[in-house]
What we know:
Blueprint: E1 2-6, H1 10-21, E2 26-30, H2 33-42, E3 47-50, H3 59-69, E4 74-79, H4 84-92, E5 97-100, H5 105-118, E6 127-129, E7 132-135, E8 140-143, E9 146-147, H6 152-163, H7 171-178, H8 189-201, E10 208-210, E11 214-216
Amino acid sequence: MRVLVAEDEQDLADLVAEGLRRCAMAVDVAYDGAAAAERLEMHAYDVLVLDRDLPTVHGDEICRDLARSGARTRILMLTAAASVPERVAGLGLGADDYLPKPFDYAELVARVQALGRRSVAPVAPVLERGGIRLDPRHLQASRGGRFLRLSLKEFAVLEVLLRADGAVVSAEQLLESAWDEHADPFTSVVRVIVSRLRAKLGDPPCIHTVPGAGYRL
Length: 217
């Protein structure tokens, strides 16, 4: 899952981003509305965690424009404006969920995960294919009943491949879905992670390289 956190309180933004990264999400951060709008034009995010009162471009404007664009990005408003009329107004702008500050981090993560499931075609909460079982909510994966000790990035790549349901996933798609904006698209980082994941999945091989196209599980 790829998430954009748009929050002008930098310490809070960084804490939220780090907490989401610990759940195997690829997270970018924007500290003002203009930066958030720019990133939304560049990347297809699953979820936008949006502070309503952003400088340069107000969060309401970002929310309204994103909802009107028809993008699949789900919006979680994270704001101190917590009264019932304010929540109603925020949802009316196109937000999918509304979480007032202060908030509990476990609830924030759960809400982001729930919105992420809604940003794509509905899938089961636990993904299974070819003896591989992956539980995104609890960060657990196994093959043939054998528990897999995966890094967060390996887990994220395996989740993308499982969600593809047998379709070919290009290296570019893996970068877009499982890495943040700091990933260098000209490195072999995808090949390295796929190689490590193959080794941990064991035999028989289940991640196949499709020459010139990408990878298929």
